[in-house]
Design a protein that fits this description.
The structure is a single chain. Helix 2 runs parallel beside helix 4. The protein is about 55% helix and about 10% strand. The protein contains twelve helices and nine strands. It has a single domain, classed as Alpha-Beta Complex (2-enoyl-CoA Hydratase, Chain A, domain 1), CATH 3.90.226.10.
């Protein structure tokens, strides 16, 4: 990923990421004779993904925001449903939608030094989770982390993220470590791995799709709530002051 504002998920970046995932899937080849058995998703040198593009989203009209929700939810679920394992090489922070991207992957490697935190801070912006994002987080996070990570919206440093199961490994070279994890799938049957992976995700995908329309409506209403608009203004002003 290499997009403006810390890989912020603008509509343009969401489209580009969806196309990249599609191209990666087409390059996998036949499931019984695969050209590749895993994918590594890499961020920029200093950031994995900072989440939704608040700057662009702040100026959107209601209908555009609704379309945007459909688009980023679709890319979250697209990544979550890739038939081969996906390993996230997180060279820097993964916040809100960026954390959802990381959780949509099967394994996560974080940096051993440099700036890093990870968190699902939607509630701090007054926003509920769209159904896809929520189900991905519910599936990928340990049950005992749900209150802190989802309800309270806490952000975790690398050590607590590792200790509590938000990430799987700390490494000085996150891409190299992610590739090592990807290579661990080479001896395994792609058909068996893919079938098992998607079976494990079946309930989450079913719930996400069943609640997609209603959860989108609630998210859009929250986006335009005057109190949440002011929260967003505060975040944008803080970012601009850095």
């Amino acid at each position: 990923m290499d997009a403006p504002r810390g890989n912020a998920l603008s509509p343009q970046t969401v489209r580009a990421l969806s196309q990249a995932i599609y191209r990666a899937e087409t390059l996998l080849g036949d499931i019984d004779d695969p050209a590749a058995k895993a994918i590594v998703l890499v961020g920029k040198p200093s950031v994995f993904c900072g989440g939704l593009d608040l700057k662009e989203g702040h100026t959107m009209e209601r209908g555009v925001v609704a379309d945007w929700v459909d688009a980023f939810e679709a890319v979250f679920l697209q990544l979550f449903s890739v038939r081969v394992p996906v390993i996230a090489a997180m060279s820097g922070p993964a916040i809100a939608g960026g954390a959802v991207l990381a959780l949509a992957c099967d394994e996560r490697v974080a940096p051993v030094d440099g700036p890093f935190d990870i968190g699902l801070n939607e509630v701090s912006l007054g926003l509920s989770f769209p159904s896809g994002a929520l189900e991905i987080a519910r599936h990928s996070l340990p049950r005992q982390l749900h209150t802190d990570a989802l309800v309270k919206g806490r952000r975790f440093d690398r050590h607590e993220a590792l200790a509590r199961g938000f990430v799987d490994e700390l490494a000085s070279d996150v891409v190299a470590a992610a590739v090592v994890r990807a290579r661990a799938y080479l001896p395994l049957s792609s058909r068996a791995v893919g079938k098992t992976k998607l079976d494990l995700r079946y309930d989450a995908l079913t719930r996400a799709r069943a609640r997609a329309i209603e959860s989108r409506r609630i998210f859009v209403e929250g986006w335009f709530d005057p109190k949440n608009v002011m929260r967003r203004v505060g975040v944008l002003e803080a970012l601009a002051a850095r």
